């Protein structure tokens, strides 16, 4: 069964009419965030976004990115903002993906955002996000609360390769299997990969932050 849209109750407050009314649809699916492209998709001139921001109806969050001022804040807002920041091309990856899936007790200082190899993120935002260029297949990408994120097995495999502490990787594997996010075969593969890593190099104890480019 398809899950109901985020803030679905907001979407039914009144029929679309004004520019703000039409923006409620995409905003409701994206934790309150809207891009210029979203505005165009619902027939709103992107220039209107600046006007609504000046009126206090929208919050200007970045280049071409706004948030509906009346939307309540949630713990996952920062993740949705992160994937929209690179013009909507982002996918949550790295330890941030483990955190979003709630698979391990990690708290990365910056959210890793995976973008296509040909995309060049703006320098603005690199103090908040760690951008990684990488090609992902359709099966590599999933969603948590409408937020694009790498699939659990990809997140765990990347954590193994990155050297995340073994007990945190074990926690992620156990949690993913217990919630049915990975099957027994994938669990076995991940455990073998973790064991092989332990035989060749030590795990790091905590996250390292990559400096700005």
Oligomer category: single chain
Determine the strand fraction and express it as a percent band: 15-25%
Shape: elongated
Largest sheet: 3 strands, antiparallel
Helix/strand order, N-terminal first: HHEHHEEHEHEEEEHHH
Category by helix and strand content: alpha+beta
Mean of residue pLDDT values: 86
What's the structural domain tally? 2
Largest sheet: spatial strand order: 1-3-2
Explain the layout of strands and helices.
Blueprint: H1 8-11, H2 19-29, E1 33-35, H3 36-41, H4 47-54, E2 58-62, E3 65-68, H5 77-84, E4 91-93, H6 94-101, E5 111-115, E6 129-133, E7 141-144, E8 147-150, H7 152-162, H8 166-178, H9 184-200
Parallel strand pairs: 5-6
Antiparallel strand pairs: 1-3, 2-3, 4-5, 7-8
How would you portray this structure in words?
The chain is of the alpha+beta class. It has 2 domains: 17-68, Arc Repressor Mutant, subunit A (Orthogonal Bundle), CATH 1.10.10; 77-200, no CATH class. The chain is 40% helix and 15% strand. It has 9 helices and 8 strands. It has helices at residues 8-11, 19-29, 36-41, 47-54, 77-84, 94-101, 152-162, 166-178, 184-200; strands spanning 33-35, 58-62, 65-68, 91-93, 111-115, 129-133, 141-144, 147-150. The strands form 3 sheets. Strands 1-3-2 form a 3-stranded antiparallel β-sheet, sandwiched between helices. Strands 4-5-6 form a 3-stranded mixed β-sheet. Helix 6 (94-101) crosses helix 7 (152-162), helix 7 runs antiparallel to helix 8 (166-178) and helix 8 packs antiparallel against helix 9. It is elongated, with a radius of gyration of 19 Å. Residues 1-15 and 205-213 have low confidence and may be disordered.
């Amino acid at each position: 069964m398809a899950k109901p849209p985020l803030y679905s109750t907001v979407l039914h407050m009144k029929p679309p009419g004004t520019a703000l009314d039409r923006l409620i649809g995409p905003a409701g699916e994206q934790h309150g965030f809207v891009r210029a492209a979203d505005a165009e998709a619902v027939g709103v001139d992107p220039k209107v976004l600046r006007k609504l921001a000046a009126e206090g109806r929208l919050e200007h969050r970045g280049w071409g990115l706004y948030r509906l001022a009346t939307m309540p804040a949630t713990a996952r807002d920062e993740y949705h903002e992160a994937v929209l920041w690179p013009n909507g091309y982002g996918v949550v990856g790295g330890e941030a993906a483990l955190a979003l899936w709630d698979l391990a007790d990690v708290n990365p200082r910056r959210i890793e955002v995976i973008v296509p190899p040909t995309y060049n993120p703006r320098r603005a935002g690199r103090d908040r996000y760690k951008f990684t260029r990488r090609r992902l297949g359709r099966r590599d990408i999933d969603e948590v609360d409408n937020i694009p994120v790498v699939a659990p097995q990809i997140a765990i495999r990347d954590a193994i390769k990155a050297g995340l502490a073994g007990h945190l990787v074990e926690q992620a594997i156990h949690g993913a299997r217990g919630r049915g996010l990975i099957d027994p075969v994938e669990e076995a593969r991940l455990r073998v990969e973790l064991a092989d890593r332990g035989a060749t190099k030590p795990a790091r104890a905590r996250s390292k932050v990559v400096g700005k480019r």
